């Protein structure tokens, strides 16, 4: 068993959004302090952190000071510039490690990694120009979807191709960025597994949740998900396989399509995941504490589910419902303290709990 | 219904210990920021607060700056100097109000207040000197206990008088402070009720917990407490009576002795209370969120108990057990991030959960 970080140690978190905020709160329950590194002013995580550095990801001096002030580094998002990681890696351990970031930062690398593990993915092809897109459309067919290889989230950097004549417009949408064409998958529903791996290689998974998206943004996650016992077991095994292949330390989210041909991996996220927020009111140890335990070398905690939960994201004007939600029984509010409500912006979430 | 504080408002918390820390975390879930005022350096609450002021309670300038920066003021301990409150009360609303502080800061005032409400207390007498102590011992008898009227907690400022000849030593222990003699109460066990009252006068109580103390410090609180249905109802009614009499806003703790003659009020605490920590893992809305809801003018939340819980304080060397506790199922750790472990110091607590 590795030596766990002593209580009172400082966890550096790259990114100051709601995931960093909830990680910081979970860290406090275990007696750790958090130091947030975030380019944007007044980050939500800064409201509940011991220390905040406001600096750009190419500010070498700020990165060095941050790295020297912390005992371990983790992150709330995967698109951290490689140059920043090059500086930080000599100053403190980074968990999850760089291999997980390398794989998940690039859709093409990620799909190839998954395929090499023997896991099913949507058909895909590397797109560099109009010719490669034409060839890929010939193989993969339509409808299909063109995505930038890097920096996409919540439906951004994506264009649907319903018929071959949409190809030029879709390619233009990519603005010259390296891209990947993905075939459409016929699926009945999407589920995700939130799983964790500790520093000594132990793996634990939360019960899979069933996700509903709209306009590219997650709306609800429901546990239990509609899965047969063997699908549930497959889902957890896929997550464990990914964790082990990456020699991963921390919490990982795996999105899966449920199809007649089995489970198809949509994508992996090397961090706590929106579809795992239900664990805050359904498990003794939630995904945020589980992640903190893993990256600090603690043993993984008890993630057994004790309630049925529907997690509902509060997006934009959903915030108008907060005062009504505040009086609902068996309903837990989790707001992010963001200064401004904008359409499409995740402002909070609510867990509707049904004790079982 | 009063207008609730808007999301993003700042709650000023006087005192930066573990109660302030857990209040700050609860406030973050509702989208509020906290500003901690605490004389001691590196307060536990500061690790999860938006802002910390480190200044003495007689620092007028610091108090003014603090009061002007917050939208409402609350506190984690009752012994706030009156002079500080005089300055703050003109700058932001203080909840719970000054009457609750006035009553609970002085054991004699508190006992008199409770008696005037028709509630049962231990027999008591005002002690100013050796003569008044001799007269009181004649009335109340021995064993009895001499306590300073103000500033006692966790067994400090108390001396037992087992026989009249102990009187002089006990009085010397008070070091000239105004004191109160309390008769011993024959009780089978102690329970406490954590109850809340909102700005519009609604009252909600958590299920009473049963407390075990040792060396003057709370060791465990167990829910459910051993109470008959009518005792449970009496306990909650007593708390409601106190809340209403004080026109109280926030969470209050009431300690009660269970005796053959009914429930006897031991003391009241105008704040979240150690014996309410079980609510973090037994209720959808815990005592900390309930307090934040009350002082911000929000509706009270759903405090129904969904699990049996034994809350155990981690005191001093109990911290050696943390790594073992971390692997126990149905066990939730809550550590306070205190720099130094000392004998008798509350370092954290753990909730042992049994789903019902």
UniProtKB/TrEMBL annotation, chains A, B:
ATP-grasp domain boundaries: 111-296
Chain residues that bind ATP: 107, 147, 152-158, 182-185, 190, 213, 266-267
ATP-binding is among the record's keywords: yes
GO cellular component, one term: cytosol
Enzyme class: ligase
EC number annotated for this UniProt entry: 6.3.4.18
Keywords: ATP-binding, Ligase, Nucleotide-binding, Purine biosynthesis
Function, in words: Catalyzes the ATP-dependent conversion of 5-aminoimidazole ribonucleotide (AIR) and HCO(3)(-) to N5-carboxyaminoimidazole ribonucleotide (N5-CAIR).
HAMAP family, per the entry: PurK
Protein name: N5-carboxyaminoimidazole ribonucleotide synthase
Gene: purK
